Amino acid sequence: MSAQAHDGSVAIVTGGTSGLGKAIALRLAAEGWQVVIAGRDEGRGQAAAAEIGAGAHYVRADATDRADLERLAASARALGPLRGVVASAGTGLKAPLIETCEADFERILRTNLLAPLGLLQAARADLARTGGAAVLVSSDAATLGEAAIGAYSVSKAALNMAGKMLALDLAPQGIRVNIVCPGDIVPGMREMLRPGEQARPPEDYRRWPVPPLGRWGEARDVGAVTAFLLSDDAAFMTGSVVLVDGGSRAGYR
Question: Does the model's pTM come out above 0.90?
Answer without folding.
Answer: yes
